[in-house]
Design a protein that fits this description.
Blueprint (H helix, E strand, L loop, with lengths): L1 H27 L8 H14 L15 E3 L2 E5 L6 E13 L5 E6 L10 E22 L2 E29 L2 E14 L2 E6 L7 H13 L1 H30 L9
Antiparallel strand pairs: 1-3, 2-3, 3-5, 4-5, 5-6, 6-7, 6-8
Family: Belongs to the TO family.
GO biological process, one term: circadian rhythm
InterPro entries: Haemolymph_juvenile_hormone-bd, To_sf
């Protein structure tokens, strides 16, 4: 009996410690009044800098290493003398912990009256993973698998959020209905290992061409890349909206 009692007491103590730690974390977060954009920007930037590993108690995922779902960036029809398919998998982003939020809009008492917008910038956003490339360029057949690394330099983003309100336990929760990202950057650097496994010189040449003409490639691939970023930002935000009521995010 004493052993069971001791285990119960220990369990209760652990629960109390866990809850206190969670409360201390949330108390460290600066809450703002509805519509106080300067306060919101300051609070968001403080959270980003102080909690790169995330805050599970409020649904905030780690931002220093961000997993990315498998994605297909290029998918031409497999016919004619030139076609190309390019897929990425086992992907991660590094650099979101260096984000600076520059502007916010729409966090009013009634957030459904307008769009919510979040603007920010990242000095360098690194994208690493594996790729498969299959295609045909006139007489050259391509079938490659390897590692890639990409650097989006001076990465700036605007997120436009459409949200719905849900009521749970007499509190308002935000439901992310749609997220539309817009991005811009000063430079895009990418390296594809073993693009031509049997010909290192040709692999180097392909990478040099890509980086010399990155703007043209960006314009061609931007819609597909935006789908990837939409997924990344959505996964970052939606769990916070799910766990924390909108009213609890703000001062009364």
């Amino acid at each position: 009996m004493r052993s069971i009692y001791s285990k119960v007491v220990l369990s209760l103590q652990l629960i109390v410690v866990y809850r206190c730690q969670a409360l201390n974390i949330t108390q460290d977060i600066q809450r703002c009044r509805f519509g106080d954009t300067d306060c919101l920007i300051e609070s968001m930037n403080s959270i980003i800098k102080r909690y790169p590993k995330g805050i599970p108690s409020i649904g905030m995922k780690p931002i220093d290493v961000v997993d990315i779902m498998d994605s297909q960036i290029w998918n031409n029809a497999q016919r004619g003398p030139v076609w190309f398919m390019f897929k990425m998998f086992d992907q991660v982003n590094y650099g979101f912990e260096n984000t600076t939020i520059t502007k916010v809009r729409g966090f009013d008492r009634n957030p459904t009256t307008s769009h919510i917008e979040i603007l920010g910038e990242i000095p360098s956003l690194i994208h690493k993973g594996m790729y498969t490339a299959v295609g045909k360029l006139l007489l050259i057949q391509m079938n490659a698998t390897g590692e890639f690394i990409s650097d989006f330099q001076n990465f700036k983003f605007t997120l436009k959020l459409k949200i719905l309100l849900e009521y749970r336990n007499n509190k308002r929760y935000l439901k992310l209905y749609e997220l539309v990202p817009r991005v811009s950057l000063d430079r895009w650097i990418i390296w594809l290992d073993e693009f031509f496994r049997e010909n290192t010189d040709l692999t180097i040449l392909v990478n040099q061409v890509f980086n010399a003409h990155w703007v043209e490639f960006w314009n061609e691939l931007e819609p597909s890349i935006l789908k990837v970023f939409r997924s990344v930002f959505t996964r970052m935000i939606e769990d916070i909206f799910e766990k924390v009521s909108y009213d609890d995010l703000f001062l009364n």
